[in-house]
């Protein structure tokens, strides 16, 4: 007579008896305890179907890993604090996916601190670090939290990403802004443009400064005189692109092409030109930077430089986790080469 299978414990019976254990999860998912452990701590080493069964069993049983015990053994938290000035930035979500996947693969979780560009908020989130609720810090802000010296003599292991950190004392992972901007400018030059405006000069954003430098290097190499270049300030918003465009028309000396520091600025320029009755790219060409999702929905679709956002997130988290278990090292900078994405917003200048 065949043996009857061992019945799975129900969630109610587990709650009625004791806290669910990893053995309960293994029985319910019909896998070994070692497989459950791998699915939790190194999910990339477990087949997708198996990982889904384990996750379902964890949800049903209510099992939670003993993070506190793990933290005590390691002498630190297993959470990483991420400080971001604007979680609505279209670049943020894709980078977050990359860094969160990398963190989870090594048994870490992520805390998101939305500073909203408010120094006080950044300082408040440092309390997680001082109370050992977070082991390391990832900065999207481009600067260390204001006032952190009042709360700690030294920041914990920290990595900047997306926006280079100004003081240079923090490791950084991001796109190669200079090389990407040079690619964009060279694309406009190869299309025949010689009068090009750059929109997005900034005194406070190092990434914007690097993109301006890439623009200048490309035009220097093409021997474009200073009289045929225009550089206007911009904070990277749609409105800043529109305002810069109005300044250019007030001067009465419009270029044939616009190179924008990011896609949001480029969308502002495209909208402004369309409102004035210009047909793009027949009358003027526009190129952006970042390749945010909205870049494909403007008319015409925006030619731009694509940031490898998920790869930036993964590498930034990997670099931070390495630093948790290593002696202090000099800051490093890891730059990932971007791709030029050619769509419909750039063509040769009209000969009038």
Automatic annotation (TrEMBL):
<feature type="domain" description="HTH lacI-type">
    <location>
        <begin position="20"/>
        <end position="74"/>
    </location>
</feature>
<keyword id="KW-0804">Transcription</keyword>
<dbReference type="GO" id="GO:0003700">
    <property type="term" value="F:DNA-binding transcription factor activity"/>
</dbReference>
<dbReference type="InterPro" id="IPR028082">
    <property type="entry name" value="Peripla_BP_I"/>
</dbReference>
<dbReference type="InterPro" id="IPR010982">
    <property type="entry name" value="Lambda_DNA-bd_dom_sf"/>
</dbReference>
<dbReference type="Pfam" id="PF13377">
    <property type="entry name" value="Peripla_BP_3"/>
</dbReference>
<keyword id="KW-0805">Transcription regulation</keyword>
<protein>
    <submittedName>
        <fullName>LacI family transcriptional regulator</fullName>
    </submittedName>
</protein>
<dbReference type="InterPro" id="IPR046335">
    <property type="entry name" value="LacI/GalR-like_sensor"/>
</dbReference>
<keyword id="KW-0238">DNA-binding</keyword>
<dbReference type="InterPro" id="IPR000843">
    <property type="entry name" value="HTH_LacI"/>
</dbReference>
<keyword id="KW-0678">Repressor</keyword>
<dbReference type="Pfam" id="PF00356">
    <property type="entry name" value="LacI"/>
</dbReference>
<dbReference type="GO" id="GO:0000976">
    <property type="term" value="F:transcription cis-regulatory region binding"/>
</dbReference>
């Amino acid at each position: 007579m065949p043996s009857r299978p061992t019945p799975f414990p129900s969630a109610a019976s587990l709650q009625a008896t004791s806290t669910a254990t990893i053995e309960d999860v293994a029985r319910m998912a019909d896998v070994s305890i070692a497989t459950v452990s791998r699915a939790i701590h190194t999910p990339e080493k477990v087949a997708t179907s198996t990982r889904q069964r384990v996750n379902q069993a964890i949800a049903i049983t209510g099992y939670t890993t003993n993070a506190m015990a793990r933290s005590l053994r390691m002498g630190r938290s297993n959470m990483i604090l991420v400080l971001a000035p604007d979680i609505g930035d279209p670049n943020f979500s894709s980078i977050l996916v990359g860094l969160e996947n990398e963190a989870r693969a090594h048994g870490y979780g992520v805390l998101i601190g939305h500073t909203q560009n408010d120094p006080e908020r950044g300082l408040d989130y440092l309390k997680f670090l001082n109370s050992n609720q977070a082991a390391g810090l990832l900065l999207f802000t481009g600067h260390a939290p204001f006032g952190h010296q009042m709360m700690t003599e030294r920041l914990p292991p920290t990595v900047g990403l997306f926006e280079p950190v100004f003081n240079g004392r923090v490791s950084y992972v991001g796109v190669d802004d200079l090389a990407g901007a040079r690619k964009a400018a060279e694309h406009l030059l190869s299309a025949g443009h010689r009068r090009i405006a750059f929109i997005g000069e900034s005194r406070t954003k190092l990434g914007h400064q690097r993109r301006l430098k890439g623009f200048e290097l490309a035009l220097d190499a093409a021997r474009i005189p200073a009289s045929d270049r225009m550089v206007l300030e911009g904070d990277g918003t749609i409105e800043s692109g529109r305002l810069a465009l109005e300044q250019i028309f007030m001067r009465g000396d419009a270029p044939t092409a616009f190179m924008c520091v990011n896609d949001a600025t480029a969308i502002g320029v495209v909208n402004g030109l369309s409102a004035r009755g210009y047909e793009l790219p027949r009358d003027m060409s526009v190129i952006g930077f970042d390749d945010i999702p909205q870049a494909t929905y403007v008319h015409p679709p925006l030619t731009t430089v694509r940031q490898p956002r998920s790869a930036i997130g993964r590498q930034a988290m990997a670099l931070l986790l390495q630093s948790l278990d290593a002696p202090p090292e000099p800051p490093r900078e890891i730059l990932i080469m971007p791709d030029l994405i050619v769509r419909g917003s750039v063509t040769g200048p009209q000969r009038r």
